[in-house]
Amino acid sequence: MTAYTATVTVRLKRGVLDPEAETTQQALERLGFELSDLRSADRFEVDLDAADADEAADRADEMAERLLANPTIHDYEVAVAER
Amino acid sequence: MVGVTVAVVQFGGSNCDRDAVRALDHLGVDAERVWHEDGLPADIEGIVLPGGFSYGDYLRAGAMAARAPIMAEVRAAAEEGVPVIGVCNGAQIGSESGLTPGAFTTNASARFQCEPVHLRVERADTPWTAAYDEGDVIEVPIAHGEGRFEISEAAHADLVADDRVLFRYCDADGNVTDAANPNGSTDNVAGVLGERETVAVLMPHPERATLPDLGRSTDGAGILDAFA
């Protein structure tokens, strides 16, 4: 078994309104920053032991499918690195 | 009706469970609060997933409660035809657990909104709406920060084709308009049916519009009358 960190990034699908990101963008603009867009995402770092990187990725993928993301509104990606 | 026992499932952070029991009591329905860890009683004839802030809305509103073991029992009961309604946080839990399609997420305003709204009854042939006629306009309050109904275009087309939209936000005259949409919900959807008509979720609070001494409307009583 090898120790891995699986990083799961969950973000809203393109086209799904993100009022929190819009509000954050407005706050940045109020502070004088110039920006054309802002998107937010949630990142989960999952430490786990697995036989290989593929198994670690599969397990993180299932975590995203079953809890971390809501497939109706979210896309997600998984990246695995040895810890 | 005597003998009907409705379970109002209480999670950590539920806060409309007592309101639901009181409203049901008022309608003559025997209702009891059931702590989620205790599981569903064997003989229940209805289930309410009440409003509140279960698990502090961690991750997403309803996400944690939807994965609590009792929800497997709720889904099994729903499949057997036991009437199940999710209100507000209960609607979020219901959609997160797959009882109903779509998702409820952050209001377009990015604000928590607590206000009376009008709903158009889109189906009058369900247990939840037997007290109304199709097209009736009822006034029921909302109180949510994550009530914007989101659904994929394909799933929305199916929802409409299957006639599973139960309530839409509308103005006082029943017109479904952007101005009458409090939270940016797709197609002004305020409540939907599950695969069975005996399963429904809605963001507005019928239990807050049932008791005559509470608030300005008793229009929500007809929804809870499904259990009577």
From TrEMBL, chain A:
Its EC number is 6.3.5.3. Keywords: ATP-binding, Cytoplasm, Ligase, Nucleotide-binding, Purine biosynthesis. The keyword Cytoplasm applies. GO terms for biological process: 'de novo' IMP biosynthetic process. One of its GO terms (molecular function) is ATP binding. It comes from the Archaea. One of its GO terms (cellular component) is cytoplasm. SUPFAM superfamilies: PurS-like. Gene3D superfamilies: Phosphoribosylformylglycinamidine synthase subunit PurS. It is found in: Cytoplasm. InterPro entries: PurS, PurS-like_sf. Pathway: Purine metabolism; IMP biosynthesis via de novo pathway; 5-amino-1-(5-phospho-D-ribosyl)imidazole from N(2)-formyl-N(1)-(5-phospho-D-ribosyl)glycinamide: step 1/2. It catalyses: N(2)-formyl-N(1)-(5-phospho-beta-D-ribosyl)glycinamide + L-glutamine + ATP + H2O = 2-formamido-N(1)-(5-O-phospho-beta-D-ribosyl)acetamidine + L-glutamate + ADP + phosphate + H(+). It holds the Pfam family PurS. Part of the phosphoribosylformylglycinamidine synthase complex involved in the purines biosynthetic pathway. Catalyzes the ATP-dependent conversion of formylglycinamide ribonucleotide (FGAR) and glutamine to yield formylglycinamidine ribonucleotide (FGAM) and glutamate. The FGAM synthase complex is composed of three subunits. PurQ produces an ammonia molecule by converting glutamine to glutamate. PurL transfers the ammonia molecule to FGAR to form FGAM in an ATP-dependent manner. PANTHER family: PHOSPHORIBOSYLFORMYLGLYCINAMIDINE SYNTHASE SUBUNIT PURS. Part of the FGAM synthase complex composed of 1 PurL, 1 PurQ and 2 PurS subunits. Belongs to the PurS family. This is Phosphoribosylformylglycinamidine synthase subunit PurS. It comes from Halorubrum saccharovorum. The lineage of its organism: Archaea, Methanobacteriati, Methanobacteriota, Stenosarchaea group, Halobacteria.
